[in-house]
Design a protein that fits this description.
six-stranded mixed sheet; seven-stranded mixed sheet
Length: 621
């Protein structure tokens, strides 16, 4: 016996213009369903959510819901009321007598989502507002819970908590998310909006890729068969038709109709399956092997008369071609690390050194480089004209917009008219027209649909420069990076060779096998790497110059460091092969461990070299 039906829509039509968004739309939502709602940007996902809530009126068709059913909706945009605290916002739809019954849930959920229930809503950032909105939905516990991108602005710990919470949720769930891992973990059914049609899979998102591919393959075969059939009819029509034979005239009209419909269906199929096809990125091999170095960097901030330690004697080297994923809780140091790299901040102690020729392309998650009053065309070609330089070649702006799945007719539209996902796509188009030697992407996956995510992964796979990605999208990190820099808080930073899956394995106790090491020493770790030989008191007493022994050691260190840098580069290049792990798991682990050992030794040599250089400089002074 199927579970009780909570909501049903039949024969629905939604029309905003001459072309309907939906026509003959039909679906059922049952108690306990876990539904992933997927589709390209603009496919109608938000419209379908509004149909479920009842906000969107139907131009035709029927909508039915079980009496007494409650529906909660986490929207993209939340507008707070002046003077309203997070606590008051969460309980704004509750009756006074119901508050005491749900007080305990507020404490649990706000703590897990890392938000203060007493803080004023008007001073929260966009990400914190969404956390407050999510907390409100979870406390309300509606019969049908609609979540629109719930993982945006959440760190990995909060995302994993949310997954666990939703798995035990007693109500029905329908969720939009770009996070494939999240959808695979929480859903058991898929609603796929494809070209105005809703296709339903009875299995969860984990099986979506194979299921959707099979449907598209079937459609392609049907189009080929239709094309062959129409071709036969067109060949008949080309031989002429006697006007007096009405039957033949009708057949000719039918041939024309079939041909026009086939062209329309083939065009729709191409749009549904098109991928961005950009030329490979220009070769950036001319830059130095080491592009940036952090030496014993310390950085802290004071907040509410309390010292917050961000980096503590942090040492790290970024090599040319590195593909680094950066993750951690909010406030753990990710943004500070980037600002130090970009020279927007200075360290309290230690030094940050970057190569003179190093240039940065920076994707800012706040999209501060986009002027909402400018047009798409002006954004890509600020100097005017119809052409834009794309990696040394002139491209028409409209053609380049089409590469990034924009309708060229929208070239004069204002940025303010774009959705969040479209703004992110435009930012990527702007940056990737001429990417610099180092590409920094800060939460690039927020608000993107899955087709655009596939596009971005493909572009990044062809990028030849140095890549740093701040993201909490686990699947995206696994697909795009070969090293994880994990900011654990309190100045602790861990480096793991591989993607997010390797980081997770390290956290679960497999660090040694995955090539894990800490860029900042942990007190609780047993037997840290053997430190460089300390300088003795006798050595420090030297007054005129370094002793012969120390001078000789200092002179030999550069050659040793260069040799180790070569080894690191060779091992890193070997690990960058995306098929290495699948083809030779043991070899991958051995190479990862070897790389960790060499990097640790290199750090010791570099630390010793700095000690001796500083000692030499102080003696000379």
């Amino acid at each position: 016996m199927p579970p009780p039906l909570l909501l049903s829509v039949k024969g629905a039509m939604i029309r905003y213009s001459e072309v309907p968004v939906f026509e003959n739309l039909a679906f059922n939502i049952h108690q306990g369903s876990r539904i992933a709602l997927v589709g390209k940007n603009g496919a109608g996902k938000s419209t379908l959510m509004n149909i479920i809530t009842g906000v969107q009126d139907l131009d035709d068709g029927e909508r039915w819901e079980e009496a007494g059913v409650t529906i909660g909706y986490l929207r993209q945009d939340i507008v707070p009321d002046p003077g309203q605290s997070v606590f008051d916002y969460i309980f704004s739809e509750f009756k006074d007598e119901e508050r005491d019954l749900h007080q305990y849930k507020v404490d649990i959920i706000t703590e897990a989502l890392q938000i203060d229930p007493q803080v004023q809503m008007t001073i929260l950032s966009g990400g914190q507002l969404r956390r407050a909105g999510l907390a409100r939905c979870l406390v309300e516990e509606p019969d049908i819970l609609l979540l629109d991108e719930p993982t945006n602005h959440l760190d990995l710990e909060a995302i994993e908590w949310l997954e666990t919470y939703l798995k035990g949720y007693r109500g029905t769930l329908l969720v939009i998310s770009h996070d494939r891992t999240f959808l695979a973990n929480v859903t058991t059914q898929v609603f796929w909006l494809d070209r105005g049609t809703l296709k339903i899979s009875p299995r969860g998102f984990k099986y979506f890729e194979q299921w959707s591919t099979d449907l598209l393959d079937q459609e392609e075969r049907e189009l080929k068969n239709r094309k062959q059939s129409v071709g036969i009819e067109v060949a008949w029509a080309s031989r002429g038709v006697k006007a007096r034979v009405k039957r033949n005239v009708r057949r000719l009209a039918l041939v024309k109709e079939m041909r026009d419909q086939l062209k329309a269906d083939e065009s729709a199929y191409r749009r549904a399956t098109e991928k961005i096809n950009l030329k490979p990125m220009k070769d950036l091999e001319h830059s130095s092997k080491t592009v940036a170095e952090f030496y014993n960097v310390c950085k802290s901030f004071e907040e509410d008369h309390k010292c917050i330690n961000i980096l503590d004697k942090f040492s790290f080297k970024i090599q040319r071609g590195d593909r680094i994923g950066i993750l951690g809780k909010n406030g753990s140091g990710k943004t500070t690390f980037l600002k130090l790299l970009l020279k927007e901040l200075e360290p309290d102690q230690g030094r940050v050194k970057t190569r003179k020729e190093l240039e940065f392309s920076y994707f800012d998650q706040k999209r501060s480089d986009l002027d909402p009053t400018e047009s798409l065309k002006k954004t890509l070609a600020p100097g005017g004209g119809d052409y834009i330089d794309v990696m040394g070649k002139e491209r028409h702006v409209c053609g380049y917009l089409k590469d990034f799945m924009f309708d060229p007719s929208r070239a004069q539209d204002k940025i303010a008219q774009l959705s969040g996902g479209q703004k992110n796509r435009l930012m990527l188009a702007k940056i990737l027209a001429n990417p610099k030697t180092c590409l920094i992407l800060d939460e690039p996956t927020n608000d993107l649909d899955m087709d655009t995510l596939d596009m971005l992964e493909e572009i990044l796979s062809n990028y030849k420069g140095t890549l740093l990605v701040v993201s909490h999208d686990r699947d995206f990190l696994d697909q795009t990076v070969t090293k994880i820099l994990a900011f654990e808080g309190e100045g602790q930073v861990d480096t793991v060779i591989g993607g997010y899956s390797d980081y997770l394995a390290m956290k679960n106790g497999g660090g040694e096998e995955k090539g894990e090491h800490s860029s900042t020493p942990k007190k609780e770790k047993a037997k840290p790497p053997k430190p460089a030989k300390p300088i003795t008191k006798e050595e420090k007493k030297a007054t005129q110059k370094l002793t012969y022994k120390l001078e000789r050691e200092l002179n030999q260190l550069p050659a040793k460091i260069e040799k180790l840098e070569t080894e690191v580069a060779a091992l890193s290049e070997k690990l960058s092969d995306g098929n290495f792990y699948q083809n030779d798991p043991d070899g991958f682990h051995e190479t990862s461990k070897a790389l960790t050992d060499v990097q640790t030794k290199l750090q010791r040599y570099e630390g010793r070299w700095l000690e001796l250089e500083e000692m030499k400089a102080s003696l000379a002074g």
